[in-house]
Design brief:
This protein is mostly helical. The chain has one domain. 59% of the residues lie in helices and 0% in strands. It has six helices and no strands. It is elongated and about 75 Å long. It starts with 10 loop residues before the first helix and ends with a helix. The mean pLDDT is 78.
């Protein structure tokens, strides 16, 4: 646990792990009411220490299973398929631009 207070969980870590999970499904996973989970998300009530820890362990376990089955994480696959914003600047080696400049003398 990386949060300094041992009784309560880190709200930022909690939000990172629950991103994209519907409230109803999340409440069912945590065996708590939708109202309670909603209060945790909106920081009306403090999050118990075990909630982010449980989500972190489930996340790590899912990654491990996917790795064992030969799947890669979706974000990693999307990142590899996207081109960098500055890719065209580095498409040709910088030495060729310098060589062209020196060859023309301009």
């Amino acid at each position: 646990m990386h949060y300094p207070n041992l009784r309560y969980g880190n709200p930022t870590e909690f939000r990172a792990y629950v991103r994209g999970i519907p409230l109803k499904d999340l409440a069912k996973q945590l065996k708590r009411s939708e109202r309670t989970v909603s209060d945790w998300l909106n920081e009306v009530k403090r999050i118990p220490y075990w909630v982010p820890e449980l989500l972190r362990l489930r996340h790590a376990e899912t990654d491990l299973y996917m790795l064992r089955m030969g799947y890669k994480r979706l974000e990693e696959q999307q990142r590899r398929s996207q081109k960098a914003a500055n890719e065209r600047l580095f498409a040709q080696p910088a030495t060729s631009a310098l060589e062209a400049h020196w060859a023309t003398g301009k």
